[in-house]
Amino acid sequence: MRLATIDNGTPDGRLVVIAPDGAHYAAAPVATMQQALEQWAEVEPALRAVTTFDQPLADVRLLAPLPRAWQWLDGSVYASHGALMDKVIGIDKAPVPWPLMYQGVSSKFYAPTEDVVMADEALGIDFEGEFGILTDTVPMGTGAADAPAHIKLVVQINDWSLRSLAGPEMKTGFGWVQAKPPCSMAPFAVTPDELGEAWADCQPNMHLTVHWNGAQFGKAHGKAMGHGFDALVAHAARTRELVAGTVIGSGTVSNENYREVGSSCIAERRGIEIVDSGAPVTEFMRYGDSVRMEAVTADGRTPFGAIDQQVVRP
Amino acid sequence: MRLATIDNGTPDGRLVVIAPDGAHYAAAPVATMQQALEQWAEVEPALRAVTTFDQPLADVRLLAPLPRAWQWLDGSVYASHGALMDKVIGIDKAPVPWPLMYQGVSSKFYAPTEDVVMADEALGIDFEGEFGILTDTVPMGTGAADAPAHIKLVVQINDWSLRSLAGPEMKTGFGWVQAKPPCSMAPFAVTPDELGEAWADCQPNMHLTVHWNGAQFGKAHGKAMGHGFDALVAHAARTRELVAGTVIGSGTVSNENYREVGSSCIAERRGIEIVDSGAPVTEFMRYGDSVRMEAVTADGRTPFGAIDQQVVRP
Lengths: 314, 314
Description:
The structure is a homodimer.
Chain A: E1 2-6, E2 14-18, E3 24-27, H1 33-38, H2 40-48, E4 55-56, E5 72-76, H3 79-89, E6 100-104, E7 116-117, E8 125-126, E9 129-135, E10 151-158, E11 161-162, H4 163-171, E12 184-185, E13 189-190, H5 192-195, E14 199-200, E15 203-204, E16 207-212, E17 215-221, H6 229-236, E18 247-249, H7 258-261, H8 266-277, E19 290-296, E20 306-312
Parallel strand pairs in A: 5-18, 7-20
Antiparallel strand pairs in A: 1-2, 1-13, 2-3, 3-4, 5-6, 8-11, 9-10, 9-18, 10-12, 14-15, 16-17, 16-19, 19-20
């Protein structure tokens, strides 16, 4: 089952169920994604019972599947990304056995094709292609074994980053505020069962293609997480109940063979350049630049649709 | 003007206006605090026009004035707190010219007298007495000069902390997730004009009394912020629009003469003990312990009411 949210002029939009053809939809029996996640056990059967899809998607504007959330927690569990980022930032931090995670702004997720307003071109504008999950209510203390039952939907995310602010904020130990403006989501949220073999061990078992200004920049594979989403949920829920509609991200998708598959963010390529030649060469994004991200399964499906956005001045 | 939220069984409660006597209320002309902050310009005159207060507060249960928020950003701008915490954590971080700030869990703020469920007594349960503000929508790029107009209400907060997790999380650079469970708020949110001389230079010009298990633990003065709330708003809004209902905190209230006035958190006292004798002596909170926090103005008013809570096991 795939769900989306159409723009009806309200902050939370209108929840719809997507047809198998990916081109039509039907109104969901509950108004918003947030409401669906709050009462998932009751709502899911009614959502799955929708089988008539007579509205063309071409006629509507899609928002993020969850246009705003009460909580956004982003992991960083692709080891090759972490190692390269430490080089870029010039930080030498001790490895930890738990999944790295920060709390980010959740009051807005950009729609898949919405222009992204960045405060200043000089701040090192970068994309970060990643996967994410949406939970129902997760009781405090839920362990990794019980966590998969709370992973209701899988999403695809662009975690926008401002690199010239990221290093200085990180060095304070307080995490990122200015360096992390709102993220974007691809249009469709997908149940794990719908992904089939493209979801394995609570990880996305598929590639994430990233195009910057039309040129392929990366095609890393998702199933290289050092901790699966089950561990991420358990980490987040150790000392707090997770509110229904919590979004948890994987962090930038990255593979050890990054020279072959490319990267899902510019900073990582700059890290490779530092390793190779001592200094970064690739510049960050400029106003007017575009980025397109689309996950592709082994059998050629694109379950989440595409993020395709342009960076614009305020 | 003082506002509060009464428990009506819904997550956002029912907004009320508090009588000058602090013992009665009237229903507000808008249902929730979140709605009021989203349309403050239109709603404020109607709120101020309420003059008949015939409902006794004793008959209702008060929630946090904003029981859940789309965004919670907590500063740390009392210099003596920062210096002592670095000693406690064993961190030697370079000073920065901007206000330190992290993003925390905003999906729940505990009611002023609600029991606080902590996952594990061994995690170093601590309180942090502080002040906070609630904003309307703040455009991205709003500077400190324009920020005061967006500070609609002042609140009093207990930022619950788990100290044994705080240091390790801080050292990753990602900030705190597990170390920062939900905060609590005192019952009344107060407009800056109502505070009068107890609000000066965008800082709380009053003491914060803290009692732990009935014994006074601290009475630090609020007007010692290294950056006022105007600077905190501007810092938060540099690269993002702040959603209406954003909560921004001051960080733990602390004064340079901490040996005379005491502390607003246990960790700080432990820092003083480390300075004085090389090792901490005071233990953290136990299940069943209580903490009471109440701001007191120079003329003896307690504008926010009191936080008075007990820590309990899950």
